[in-house]
Amino acid sequence: MRFQSWLHTCSSATCTVATTHPSTISLPHKQQKHAYQYHDHSTSSEAPSSTTSNTSTSTCSLQSNLSIQTLPSVPSLNLSPQTLTFSVSHHCLTTLTPHPSRPVTSLAVNDTLLYAATDHQINVYDLHSCTNLHTFDTKLSTSSGSIKTITFSKNIILTTHQDSKIRVWHHNNKNHRMLTTLPTVNDRLRRFLLPKNYVTIRRHNKRLWIEHADAVTGLAVTNGAIYSVSWDRTLKIWRLSDFRCVESVRAHEDAVNAVAVSNDGTVYTGSADRRIRVWARHVDEKRHVLVATLEKHKSAVNALALNDDASVLFSGACDRSILVWEREDSANHMVVSGALRGHQKAILCLVNVSDLLLSGSADRTVRIWRRDYDGRFGCLAVLDGHRKPVKSLAAIPEYDQNKTSNGSVSVFSGSLDGEIKVWQVSIVSQSKHDRELNS
């Protein structure tokens, strides 16, 4: 496993201070809000690379230098605790330990089930009782490597791995059966004879362009397509119907750590090169094109999250800040509106649920943020209790018998200490809280 190198202090160029860049970007005017239908154009815009991304530069330090000045040119969006219009209570319901000696690398919720990845195993828990229902092993060979991410599409489960593969599983009751590995055997057979289908990975080493060449670090599924990013610096798009790779893009100059996709098909990728890039495929065009580059972070970008209507993008990096990017109503572009500050070390994961943003950090805490009426964000709660960095998060809103939100959220935090903590967070407006106290 590569956890030891991942824990090293940021010493590469990806974590050095960069010059200030413009924060305004233009989005494509041709972009249409519709579900893209993918066809096999068998295209690759991936430029051959002489070397694969080095592990030490593909992720940032979990021990970020606290002396680094955190984006002084970006205004803070933090509200003073005294001005919050919400009342918050939270407590830890229980702690789950799938395997004491193995870090929890990914958490994901599907219906009433919580999936937790530890090394090459996935533990399935009942959300309500927190009992372990099933455990299945994804290690099909000695080189399978640890699980990086888990995501879902109906009864299909997709997992990404350290060995550069994406595996597809079918879920039926308690049984999980592997359907295929991406790229599929059929996809390889269709392409392996033609020299044009190969790209140079490193000297005297070539691969099919449909293959990732390093750990697959992020995955998103929407509009009938699978989007994957990797430490090999590429973004690949796969057709969900037959799992065929239809496009590969050389997305960044360093390892790609995160991907987020809006419902209109706009793709956001975050990288160790400190940049967030925006990609779109226009109507009747075959390939995704770069339409914008967001440059404000001073170190590796680790996590991305979109709000419900994709009008706000959140990005977390080794510089200990969460940047908030917003579309302006008066124009077709996006700007950085400010930063959320409070974490003492690198931001490792972000999750948006309803109107809440959750952030997990190498400082071993989880922070819960909510936007107030004036556009600024209040840190509603700091969930503390892990002994090592918080690597993964999942959250779901809770509902009453009438299926309306009761103002509570169940939060699941996974840490490199091998523990999953289950939290209940209750949020009420201050006016409602005052009425309840006076009644």
TrEMBL record:
Q: Recite the UniProt keywords alphabetically.
A: Kinase, Repeat, Transferase, WD repeat
State the SUPFAM superfamilies in the record: WD40 repeat-like (SSF50978)
Region annotated Disordered sits at 26-58
Please give the CDD domains that the UniProt record associates with this protein: WD40
| One GO MF term | kinase activity
Identify the InterPro entries for this entry: JINGUBANG-like, WD40/YVTN_repeat-like_dom_sf, WD40_PAC1, WD40_repeat_dom_sf, WD40_rpt
Keyword Transit peptide part of the UniProt annotation: no
Instruction: Tell me the Pfam families matching this sequence.
Output: WD40
- Keyword Repeat annotated: yes
Name the SMART domains for this protein.
WD40 (SM00320)
Question: Where does this protein have compositionally biased stretches of type Low complexity?
Answer: 44-58
Q: Where are the WD repeats?
A: 249-279, 294-335, 340-369
**PANTHER family in the record, alphabetically?**
F-BOX AND WD40 DOMAIN PROTEIN, F21J9.19
Protein name (record): Myosin heavy chain kinase B
Provenance organism: Cajanus cajan (Pigeon pea)
Classification of source organism: Eukaryota, Viridiplantae, Streptophyta, Embryophyta, Tracheophyta
